[in-house]
Protein 1
Amino acid sequence: MVTKNTHPDIAEDVLQEGCYYLAQLGLPDEKIAAHFETDPATVSRLITAYKAKLESGEVAAGDFDKVFWEDVRKEADGDMKLTFVSDKGFHHSWKSELERLDGRALMSIYEASKDFVNMDQNQKFLDFPPPKGYDPLALDREVKKAVVVIEQLLGEKWKAERKRIGENPPP
């Protein structure tokens, strides 16, 4: 089945695969349509086209594809992948995974990441937009972004703990 590609900059095959896997992950056609800026009928046609390719053997379902689209879904739902520093080196994690850590672990990650950013002689350039193409400060920018998110998570944990023990958190 041939469908009209509403995104000329995105390959039709990618749209079909994305719609198929996002539907497999439980997203309704309406939500998929909103993410791909199209209508639910087009999403349905794209899913059907990809299913036909799977059945004919033109494409094969793979774990890598499923994991990739799971990550896309997490990002679309507002979760974000963060790069941070600990005493053991650099790490990548989803924000939702960091939310599950206790305050002590989060504080350790926050301090190590903040120390990393503060020790960089080039940190003054982090406030400027990255250059086109290669960004030599990409890692620093990612860690700086994580510091802000972890600081917010620590604030939420602090408020929750104060509420739990009956103190009124500051406004």
Protein 2
Amino acid sequence: MKFFKAGIQAEFSQCQVENTHFLNEYLKLGTISQLNKWKKLGSRVDFEESERLIFDLLLSLKEDVLRLESALSQQNELLPLEEKGIIDELNFEYINFLQPCLNEEKEYYLRFELKNQQMAVFLKAENVHLAKIIKIKPEDRIAYDAFVVELQRNFIREKKG
């Protein structure tokens, strides 16, 4: 398994995936990624240059508004999580913590920020450092995978350079 350095601050709590409190928050997070459906639809439409410019500007403005709304509402609404840790390394399926903080075979709710977007996933601990992602929303999966690919590219560039 190849891992890539991340250094991301995270909060997490041990829980079952079916826990409704964590599940409700999990489903609420990531409103910015809902714009991806509009981006996909826009990519299929044959706009004139001026229409494309206006469409992109409107999407950008909507993204900014959603980000502000999300930040304001999440300050008061996010569940308090019991643990804090640093995601030292990750790949497409696993997250590796810097410090030993997990209980083997237990499930966790994990929240972290990725490119100014709050993201939440459910994990299952493999050992005290390593956990497998067992539940992630499809739109978050796209953003997460793109981040891992970016880390891979940086790793390859550093190795070559």
